[in-house]
Write a structure and sequence with these properties.
By secondary structure, this protein is α/β, with parallel strands linked by helices. Helices cover 38% and strands 20% of the residues. It is built from eight helices and eight strands, in the order E-H-H-E-H-E-H-H-E-H-E-H-E-H-E-E. The strands form two sheets. The protein has a six-stranded parallel beta sheet. Strands 7-8 form a two-stranded antiparallel sheet. Helix 3 links the parallel strand 2 and strand 3. The longest helix is centred in the N-terminal third of the chain and has 15 residues. It starts with 8 loop residues before the first strand and ends in an 8-residue tail after the last strand.
């Protein structure tokens, strides 16, 4: 149905749905439609990597799980400074994945990030081979100190990379309701009985 409506980008991961998401993707998408009719993205679970062999093993499993010969978009999942310094760099993850790209097993190489703009800048400076970055980008996180979506977006574009957006509505309408509920205490009545808004922002994360 989604393909018929023109939706062709499908995102999965090695760990989603208790490790079954890639299998579901194979059964519901790959086995039912021509490979050239859709774009498939999946992610390497950075936190699960304990050696260079883990990178190679998991990547091979992902190709088998999804039933494909290549991934259109492949991401190093959920980068932060700890993962980058202690896992990505010592186990040469970007270097290994770049070799897979040369072999045609990855069409576009990127990463998702949940850290400060300064850290994002560092990765892009050290790994110019990266083609895209996935970030949370929405009105709620636009200027939030803990996300700084706008600053991250500007850094990515300045480096000439593509931006892949996640959480465009902050995780969905249920989150919006939680934001509303958590923000109700910000409203108070003034002496004239009219509602005024206290300064500050609702949490909702």
């Amino acid at each position: 149905m989604r393909l018929q409506k023109g939706y062709t980008y499908f995102d999965t991961s090695y760990v989603y749905h208790n490790g079954k998401s890639e299998d579901f993707t194979r059964k519901t998408l790959v086995e039912r439609h021509p490979r050239e009719s859709f774009t498939l993205a999946t992610k390497l679970p950075t936190w699960a990597i304990k050696s260079e062999e883990d990178v190679k093993r998991i990547f091979a499993e992902q190709l088998q799980n999804c039933g494909v010969d290549y991934f259109d978009y492949y991401l190093v999942h959920n980068l932060n400074s700890g993962f980058y310094d202690n896992i990505v760099t010592p186990y040469h993850i970007f270097e290994i994945l770049s070799e897979y790209k040369k072999e045609g097993k990855i069409k576009h190489l990127g990463f998702s990030v949940h850290d400060a703009p300064e850290f994002l800048e560092r990765i892009l400076n050290e790994h110019p081979e990266v083609e895209f970055v996935q970030i949370a980008f929405n009105y709620y996180d636009y200027s939030a100190a803990w996300v700084q979506s706008k600053k991250c977006y500007d850094i990515i574009r300045r480096h000439g990379k593509l931006v892949n957006i996640m959480e465009p509505v902050k995780g969905g309408i249920s989150v919006l309701f939680r934001i509303y509920d958590s923000g109700r205490h910000l409203y108070r009545s003034d002496r004239r009985g009219k509602n005024t808004v206290c300064t500050g922002g609702a949490s909702g994360r």
